[in-house]
Every structure is written in C-alpha cells, then in structure tokens.
C-alpha cells in the first residue's frame, strides 16, 4: 500500500501517527476490495478504525482526487509507483524499513507514518 496526497494538502507535520492518519480526509477503495480489506485488517490489529471521506472503485479517480488536494488516498503500491514514474522527476521514491510513507504527488516528498512518536 502507498499513502498519497497533493503537495498542497494541509498537513501540519511530517510525521503522522495512525490515530492522526485515521482522522485525515481519507480517500479509499470500496469496502470489500482487497486493498481496503488489508488496510482495515491492519488498523483493526492496531485498535484503529477508519472513516473515509470518499470511496471509489477506481484507483485513477482516487489518485486524481488526492492530487487535487481533496484528501489522502491509500492505493496499491505498484499503481502509485507507476504513476509517480510519469509525474515525478526521475520517478524514484525513498523508503525506510518498517515505516509507511505519505508520498506527495507529484513532487515525491515523503511523510512518515508511525504507531507512536
């Protein structure tokens, strides 16, 4: 999974806890989709629940909404990486083991998401 938003999305810090992520304006796939089930299972294990702003069956629509600044989308990593290759200079992403990232489209800036600070 990859967490994406616009560079203009109003995040107050560069690291989010799971609680903070769950309170953001989330743009998610429909209930029952593999990515949504995986996300909700992981959040359930951490004792968290998510209430999305908007749901769609279409990854492209969710990504477009995120790029437009409507919220934060959680999408399949392979899809996001392909889209970043089209939009980000060099098409590369940094990653750190054990940490999820918010990747701001199209700039490729990453923001840490952690269980705790």
Could you name the key traits of this structure?
single chain; 117 residues; alpha/beta; 7-stranded mixed beta sheet; 7 strands; 25% strand; globular
Distance between the termini: 21 Å
Structural class assignment: alpha/beta
* Share in β-strands: 15-25%
Helix tally? Answer: 4
Largest sheet: 7 strands, mixed
Cα-atom Rg, whole angstroms?
13 Å
Which residues sit in consecutive blocks of at least 5 with pLDDT less than 50?
90-99
* Shape verdict: globular
What is the helical fraction, as a range of percent?
Answer: 25-40%
Q: What are the secondary-structure elements, in order, as H or E?
A: EEHEHEHEHEE
Tell me the strand order in the biggest sheet: 2-7-6-1-5-3-4
Question: Can you give the mean pLDDT?
Answer: 76
User: Count the strands?
Assistant: 7
Q: How would you characterize the overall build of this protein?
A:
The protein has 117 residues and is an alpha/beta fold. Helices cover 32% and strands 25% of the residues. It has a seven-stranded mixed sheet with strand order 2-7-6-1-5-3-4, with helices on both faces. The model is unreliable at 90-99 (pLDDT under 50).
